[in-house]
Amino acid sequence: MDLGLAGRRALVTGAGKGIGRGTVKALHAAGVQVVALSRTRADLDSLVVEPFLEVTKEACDTSFDVNLRAVIQVSQIVARGLIARGAPGAIVNISSQASQRAITNHSVYCSTKGAMDMLTRVMALELGPHKIRVNAVNPTVVMTPMAQANWSDPQKAKAMLDRIPLGRFAEVENVVDVILFLLSDRSSMTTGSTVPVDGGFLAT
User: 12 exposed, middle or buried (CB, 10 Å; 0-12, 13-18, 19+)?
Assistant: First the structure.
């Protein structure tokens, strides 16, 4: 399906690995010019996985820097540029199913992704009058190298997979396809939404 993205320009954050790298490849294939690869601290393997009673200030600061502050800063640059040119646009934030479901030992991660969902809604509200749409995708575990390392324990993986009706984790392409749709005019009436890519996890 032609999503009408050819000839457009895009900025991709965290482009060095995982979903970011897959998005860059898909955008190139769709004829999009990737004008900047923003390598923020989001490139770091900094997922904080520890019990609530052991969470430190440093862990909180790192997670908020990666999962929220970096997104705000980059999105401000993009939005200001679009507004200055009088151009419409679309921003897609990467959230998580963990924004809407509690996961053991993920208190900081769940909290920052919950904040990401609300940030997405407020951005959509404020940027809508400028014809800028803002949405988020909320994947389940996506089989990037970081996820493979964090979910390599079969017992831990089984506990999560048992809550996913489709019985599997997502591949990078599953998330990238939804990102491309949300960037395209095919979703021109969609903004302020959080779109699960979770195999049904949030339905259970």
Answer: buried
